[in-house]
Amino acid sequence: MEEKVKVGCSNCGATNNYPLGVSGKKVVCGRCKYSLPEPGSVLELPASQASVFFQNSKLPILVDFFSPTCGPCHMMHPVVDSFAKRRAGEIMVVRINVDENPQVASEFKVQGVPTFVILHKGYERGRTSGALPEADFALWVASKI
Question: Within 13 A of 67's CA, how many CA atoms are on the CB side?
Fold first, then answer.
């Protein structure tokens, strides 16, 4: 039997079972037929797609608000990337550039970067700002999902 993990469709938010071991093949959403992100990937979504995804995803979402000019943000990128791979199938990770998407940052009342927000079924479950060691970051996320 083929092993599968859950991923959320970045187009409609539907939860899908993504078969592992199909690298290089296109896997599509069962509801809208949009191409699914690979498990463990960090999504960078446009504002219009992000709001639909945040409201409709049944999986918890970690949102990483960052700026390309922020040193601590760059320090956290490998931590977030590693976390996304380790927790594939349990949580979706979305990275939002506050310079390109100020309206999304404003909706979430982000005042500094990096800011991390945990969402589940459209509701905020927790937030923290600033760089954290990898172990502390993983523990913080685990306590909120």
Answer: 15
